[in-house]
Write a structure and sequence with these properties.
Blueprint: H1 2-13, H2 15-25, H3 27-44, H4 46-49, H5 81-117, H6 119-133, H7 137-148, H8 152-178, H9 182-189, H10 194-203, H11 208-230, H12 242-248, H13 258-285, H14 292-297
Helix pairs in contact: 2-13, 3-5, 3-13, 5-6, 5-8, 5-11, 6-8, 7-8, 8-11, 9-10, 11-12, 11-13, 12-13
Length: about 300
């Protein structure tokens, strides 16, 4: 009985449990989480949810209004807008998550090494981050595409190469505080390896700002992917993408305005929900330090 009560108290007093309770009280954050989860489900289950082939052309039914067979209507080539929107969710979100994964794979380890090691290694990594932050991502992506040709993969590589720096800064700043904690000192005194200390003791206790900033950064990645696809430098037709759908609708904005409405709403709703979730996570994981992750990422 005593053990049960102790375990219950430990659970209620734990950091994650308190963070979950704070997040559940934030209605906007919960709404954002639900919308993000729905987008992910739609994206990964696109082949099961799409009513038609998103690339099937049928000019006999071009620019149709919404109907039972085509709930969101058809585009200029007679393709189902709902099917293209669903597959566009898959393309945009999966690519955005892939970019985020690449950024985390580069920025987080470098930030941990810089903060834990210090000295010339810290100076080298942070100076590299300073140099990377001086490059405008849009202009560099345009330069790369002009040399290698239009490709979403090229855009993704540029974003990973440039956007690891804010994550490294955030991680380094947190590691500098965590490595002075008693449990890290105890692990060092016990003879634990540096790799074990960095992973088990430092990384796990420094991850909260990264989680918050990652949620906020995904929205920017989605905007960049859609923007480059809109101008023809990202996803290439006939592959479904929200940016490509917006680009296709430019010529028909007066005759078929719904072609622009659906992908525009998808981009707006996904970015808005991610921002709301990010703000909620910021308050839940780092109470009393509003927008801390953003300030650190921007180098303020």
């Amino acid at each position: 009985m005593v053990q049960k009560m102790t375990l219950g108290k430990t659970r209620e007093d734990s950091f994650l449990w308190c963070a979950m309770k704070r997040l559940c009280k934030d209605k906007l954050a919960l709404a954002g989480l639900i919308i993000v989860v729905l987008f992910l489900i739609v994206g990964f289950a696109a082949p099961l949810l799409a009513p038609h082939d998103p690339t099937a052309v049928n000019t006999a039914i071009r620019l149709q209004m919404p109907s039972w067979e085509y709930p969101l209507g058809t585009d200029q080539l007679g393709r189902c807008m709902l099917s293209r929107l669903i597959y566009g969710t898959q393309t945009t979100l999966v690519n955005a998550l892939a970019v985020l994964g690449g950024i985390l794979a580069v920025g987080v380890p470098l930030g941990i090494i810089a903060g834990y090691k210090g000295g010339w290694i810290d100076n080298l990594i942070m100076r590299a981050a300073d140099i990377v932050c001086t490059f405008p991502s849009s202009l560099l992506a345009l330069a790369v595409v002009s040399i290698l040709g239009p490709s979403l993969l090229n855009i993704m590589i540029v974003l990973v190469c440039l956007w690891w720096a804010p994550f490294a800064r955030i991680m380094r700043s947190t590691v500098l505080k965590v490595k002075e904690k008693d449990y890290v000192m105890a692990a060092q005194a016990a003879g634990s390896s540096k790799l074990k200390i960095m992973v088990q003791h430092i990384l796990l206790n420094s991850i909260s700002p990264i989680v918050v900033y990652s949620t906020l950064r995904v929205g920017m990645i989605i905007m960049h992917i859609a923007g480059f696809s809109f101008i023809g430098l990202g996803t290439q037709p006939p592959q479904a993408d929200w940016g490509v759908m917006l680009s296709d609708s430019r010529e028909f904005i007066t005759t078929a305005p719904l072609m622009m409405v659906w992908p525009g709403l998808a981009i707006m709703l996904s970015v808005f929900s991610l921002n709301m979730l990010g703000e909620g996570l910021n308050q839940a994981l780092m109470p009393g330090s509003s927008k801390k992750a953003r300030r650190l990422g921007d180098g303020e």
